[in-house]
Every structure is written in structure tokens, then in C-alpha cells.
Amino acid sequence: MVVVDRLSKDRHFSPCRTDMKVHDLAMLFVRDVWKLHGLPDSIVSDGGPLFVSEFWKAVCHCLQISIALSTAYHPETDGQTENANAFLEQYLRQYVSFAQDDWDEWLPLAEFAARNVVNDSTGMSPFFSNTGYHPRMSFGPPRPMPRAAPKDLAERGSEGNSFAVKMQEITDLLRTNLASAQASQEQFANANRTPAPAYRVGDMVLLSTRNIRSARPTPKLDHKFIGPFRVERVLNAHAYQLKLPHELQSLHNSFHTNLLRPAPNDPLPGQYNPPPPPIALDANGEKLWAIEAILDSKRTKQKGFQYHVQWRGYDLEEATWEPLHNVVNAHIAIKEFEKRHRTKPRPTKQEMRNAHRQAARGVVESEAMD
């Protein structure tokens, strides 16, 4: 199980069994999250059976933790999470190739090394973000045992030295492999990359929505950039602090330059570029989208039951046909549609049950506009 803090990018790796029960999940949470960081305000997880169980819901309810599932209105991953997963997978592949079948015993060292890598978004390592200092990463040569030490004590001391040296060798190897992997990724990324523009305080920029989780089932209709926003501070050559409006305060206001774009200020004569519709974010930094109205319904053999949905803030031309499980929780919109259009197709009870199960499992599907 991998736990990632959305603010500091800290992470914990917990070895699990494939037959783990929900009580085991709760104990992992106590051991690897609660004990170290206190109780979180919210937890975003997939729709796996353990995370949708009544036991887990009851635990989170008693601890006043809101649960957000990556279901129809919360896509399974965002760009930042995908990048983090790819990074961890590559890192663990390097690690497992060294430790072979005893990877779970050395997983703490993998976590320690991963927590001490500087994150591009925050400009600091997760460890430093949490503690305010960098941990000691190495030690000197083994200390010899006193000459008068008993033989068995000397042997145990020698074994302890060997164990510590082995830990250091593994840590050094991990750091070397990680640095090599990062260098390879950087070289590949820079192959066709043009230098990012340098911004100054007061410049107006647009912010990419790549790392803002969208609850909308059709991401291609999302605006790629929002803003413009004013540059408040230059953190370094690759990071800037922006002045964000109140509705975006749940976002961290420091961003890497690859998420920014100069705001256009030279429209053609007579041209008016309307700004993207305003968005709001919940406490998890996720975009809140709402259904304006359900326009139509249909049932086909290939795609099953679908609703034609108009999204709030978008024109009728941008309405999309959505599978039932993407709309099943919009109770008011469905009731209003059925009241207005009594002769239109309606989902059967079995279709509704299936849609609720799919939404609970985190199935996300969206169809292109017809």
C-alpha cells in the first residue's frame, strides 16, 4: 500500500498481502499514518473492496475523516499521481533487482531514500518539508570492539557491523540508481524541449489544469489552462509563486515553470477571447463540476443506457452522452428529466443496480460527443 500526502508529497510504503482483510487495512493506517502524522482531514482512494467496505466507512466516520473515491466524478488518476506512480515503479524495479525475493524486508530503505528526493513542485524533499531538516544519510567505518570484550559479544558486534554496512551499501545503491533514473528521464524529457520563459514579479501567467483533478467524465472538454494569475514571487529558475483567487486557496500556490504559460495580452483587432468559466475546488483541490441539465436519454445494444448531459458553464453544443454509472448519483437532474419527458427511455431497476456497483468500483467511462 502506498500512501502519499498531497501537500508535502511525503509517502509511505506498506507491504501487504493479497488476502489482506479490512481490519488489516485499519491497522496499517494506525501504524503508518495516524501514529506518524495524526489524523488526516480526508482520504482519496480507489474503489477497491476494502475502501468501500462498511467497516472502513465506519472507522473514517468515527474519526471524522471524509472519504473521496476515484469514481465517476473523481477520475482514477491525475497527471501528478501518474508521474508519482511511474517514478515509484521505476524506483522499486531498481530496488527489487538488488534485494530479489526479500524486497519487503528492505522496503523501509526504499521509503527512506524516496522521501529524501527533492520534489520539483515543492522545491524540497518530503522529509525536509515535514521536519525542517535533512536526515543524516551515511556513517563512518565500523567501530572495532574493545579487545577485552567476550568472544560471543565480539562476534555479535561483528555481525552488527556487517548488517550496518550492508544497509549503507543498499542505501548508496538506491541513491545511485535513483540519480541515474532521474538523469535518464531528464535527458529524455529535454531532447525536444524548448527553454521555458523566465517570468518576473508582476507578470501575468496562465496555469495548467494538468494537476487539478477534474470530476468531469470527459476531460477533453476541460480548459487546458486557467487564469491569468499574477506572479508574486520568483522562488528559483524553475518555480514561481502565484497570487491565486479565493476559490483556489486549497491549491499550493507554488508551481513549476512547465505548468505556466505567458498570458496573451495582444488579441487581434476586434477579437475578444472570453475567459474560461470560473471553477471552484473542494478541500482536496479537486475541480467541482455540476450537471446543468439532462437533455435526452437512449438505450443501445453496444453502449447500454445513456443520458445526454449538459454541463454547467458549457454550451449545449458541448453536451455529451454519458453512460448511466457516470450520472447515477445526479438524483435531482434525473428526476427533473423524467418529470419533463415522461415518454423518454428510463433505466430499469437492474440497470440502476449495475450502475451503482460500477460507480462504487471506480469505473470511469465517458463517450465522445455525438
Task: Give a verbal description of the structure.
The chain has 370 residues and is an alpha+beta fold. Among the domains are: 198-287, SH3 type barrels, CATH 2.30.30; 290-360, OB fold (Dihydrolipoamide Acetyltransferase, E2P), CATH 2.40.50. The chain contains eight helices and 14 strands. It has helices at 22-37, 54-62, 79-99, 103-114, 126-131, 151-190, 331-340, 349-360; strands at residues 2-4, 11-13, 42-45, 66-69, 204-208, 213-214, 225-236, 239-243, 254-256, 260-262, 286-287, 291-300, 304-311, 320-323. The chain has a five-stranded antiparallel beta sheet, with no helix packed on it. Strands 12-13-14 form a three-stranded antiparallel beta sheet, with helices on one face. A hairpin with a 3-residue loop joins strand 12 and strand 13 (304-311). The longest helix is centred in the middle third of the chain and has 40 residues, at 151-190. The protein is globular. The two termini are 40 Å apart.
Distance, first to last CA: 40 Å
Write down the CATH class of the domain at 198-287: Mainly Beta
Radius of gyration over C-alpha positions, nearest whole angstrom: 26 Å
List the secondary-structure elements in sequence, H or E.
Answer: EEHEHEHHHHEEEEEEEEEEHH
Number of strands: 14
Uncertain spans, ≥5 residues at pLDDT below 50? 71-81, 266-271, 363-370
Helix content: 25-40%
Q: Which secondary-structure class do the elements indicate?
A: alpha+beta
Beta-strand percentage range: 15-25%
Summed over residues and divided by their number, the pLDDT gives a mean of: 73
CATH topology label of the domain at 198-287: SH3 type barrels
Give the neighbour order of strands across the main sheet.
Answer: 9-8-7-5-10
